[in-house]
Every structure is written in structure tokens, then in C-alpha cells.
């Protein structure tokens, strides 16, 4: 019996050290970035990216809605993919995407226009990113707290996607701070509007620091029956 208890203690210690190492080692090897100082936009003209666009060709799209994935473990278990697709078709959306957590949902891929999307991130403070035009899932993340260097490293890892949007920065305190927005770069959009929270102060902070990022407005819906 004593030998069994001793073996169990050794197993617990080894497991604890392995778990601790998996959490700490990624922080040790994270790059430390020399972020440029915030620099407001300057010049004599205002740039309008839409001035030459034909508004009759615009399409209605939504890039954030979760479906029933991972055996119902994640939020979205009330949303079968077929129901999502049928509802957004009824609402006359042209582009229907499903942004499951850490999973590219290919429902509707045979009915163009199909755009693969997923929501990246599995960490304590919901530091998430919406990956639009996703080629594959990036499984790396920092599961506990994240410094702005960790956040920048993750953003850089996700650049093989067509567009990267920072998800719901104001939804959870300490996910993305307005101070982070002054320095983070190499992403395309900020999800500044969804049905849960507005993040205008974060978008304003990024723009005021000279980062030309766009606003993403979407549903981020986890229960289409509501």
C-alpha cells in the first residue's frame, strides 16, 4: 500500500511539472517586440476607401455566429449548422459563415459564396480573434493571461488567413485594453459592434494611434432561437 501511495505521489508531481512547463515555456520563448510609438494620422487629405465603390454590388454578410460544435462543450449548442444557414438565408444574407471555436465549419461550402471562418482562442480572458478566409486552424495560444507581446505574437501567427479581426475587445476586462490598441498591429479589423458589447473606445484608440483598421459589425450569436 505504501509503495502504491509513493508511486501516486511521484505521478502527481511529474504531472504537475509537465503541466506547469506547458504553461510557462511558451511565455519564455515569446518574442519581445519593439512597438513603435503611437503616431496619429497626418496630412492634408482624408482617405475615403469607399469613394469609387459601386454600392449596388455590395453583399450582406455576417462573420460571427457559433454552431453546435465539439459535442456541445462550447457555447452554440442550440445552433445546428443547417438552422443557422436557413435563418440567414431567410434574412437575405448573401454570405453566410459559421465561426466555431477552433474549428472551420464547412457547412455550405458547395453553395458559393462560401468563406471559411473560425474563432481563435482558448484562454482565461477571452483574447479571441476572428479568422476570415481561414486556411487551417492555428492551435497555439496562451491559456492564461497575455501580455501585449503575447497578443502580437498570436496575431502574427494568424496572418496566413485572409483577414484577422480582434474579437469583442470590450466584452471581458483584460482581454484587449485600449492601451493595447495603441501598439498592436498587423491585423485588419476590430469587432467593435455585436449584440453583446460595443467596443468603440478600442477602435478609437487604434485609429488615434495611427493604425488604419476597419470596424467589423456582426451578431456573434450563440443562440439563434433567441
Which radius of gyration do the C-alpha atoms yield? 21 Å
- How far apart the termini lie comes to 56 Å
Which runs of at least 5 residues are low in confidence (pLDDT < 50)? none
State the helix count.
Answer: 5
Q: How many DSSP-defined strands?
A: 7
Shape: flat
Determine the fraction of residues in helical runs and give it as a percent range: 25-40%
Oligomer: single chain
Largest sheet: 5 strands, mixed
Question: Topology as H/E string?
Answer: HEHEEEHEHEHE
Beta-strand percentage?
A: 5-15%
| Order of neighbouring strands in the sheet with most strands | 3-4-5-6-7
Query: What structural class is derived from the secondary structure elements?
Result: alpha/beta
Lay out the secondary structure:
Layout: H1 2-28, E1 61-62, H2 81-90, E2 95-96, E3 117-120, E4 129-132, H3 148-157, E5 163-166, H4 178-181, E6 189-193, H5 200-208, E7 214-217
Architecture overview:
It is built from 5 helices and 7 strands. The chain has helices at 2-28, 81-90, 148-157, 178-181, 200-208, and strands at residues 61-62, 95-96, 117-120, 129-132, 163-166, 189-193, 214-217. It starts with a helix and ends in a 9-residue tail after the last strand. It has a 5-stranded mixed beta sheet, with helices on one face. By secondary structure, the chain is of the alpha/beta class. β5 (163-166), α4 and β6 (189-193) form a beta-alpha-beta unit.
Amino acid at each position: 500500500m505504501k509503495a502504491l501511495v509513493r508511486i501516486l505521489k511521484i505521478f502527481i508531481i511529474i504531472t504537475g511539472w509537465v503541466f506547469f512547463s506547458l504553461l510557462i515555456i511558451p511565455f519564455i520563448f515569446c518574442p519581445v517586440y519593439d512597438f513603435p510609438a503611437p503616431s496619429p494620422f497626418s496630412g492634408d487629405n482624408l482617405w475615403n476607401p469607399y469613394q469609387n465603390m459601386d454600392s449596388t454590388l455590395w453583399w450582406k454578410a455576417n462573420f460571427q455566429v457559433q454552431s453546435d460544435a465539439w459535442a456541445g462543450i462550447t457555447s452554440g449548442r442550440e445552433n445546428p449548422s443547417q438552422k443557422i444557414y436557413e435563418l440567414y438565408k431567410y434574412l437575405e444574407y448573401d454570405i453566410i459563415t459559421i465561426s466555431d471555436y477552433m474549428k472551420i465549419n464547412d457547412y455550405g461550402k458547395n453553395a458559393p459564396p462560401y468563406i471559411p471562418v473560425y474563432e481563435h482562442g482558448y484562454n482565461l480572458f477571452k483574447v479571441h480573434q476572428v479568422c476570415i478566409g481561414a486556411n487551417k486552424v492555428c492551435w497555439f495560444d496562451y491559456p492564461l493571461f497575455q501580455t501585449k507581446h503575447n497578443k502580437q505574437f498570436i496575431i502574427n501567427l494568424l496572418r496566413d488567413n485572409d483577414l484577422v479581426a480582434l474579437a469583442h475587445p470590450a466584452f471581458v476586462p483584460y482581454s484587449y485594453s485600449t492601451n493595447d490598441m495603441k501598439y498592436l498591429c498587423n491585423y485588419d479589423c476590430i469587432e467593435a459592434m455585436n449584440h453583446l458589447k460595443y467596443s468603440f473606445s478600442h477602435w478609437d484608440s487604434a485609429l488615434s494611434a495611427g493604425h488604419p483598421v476597419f470596424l467589423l459589425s456582426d451578431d456573434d450569436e450563440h443562440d439563434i432561437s433567441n
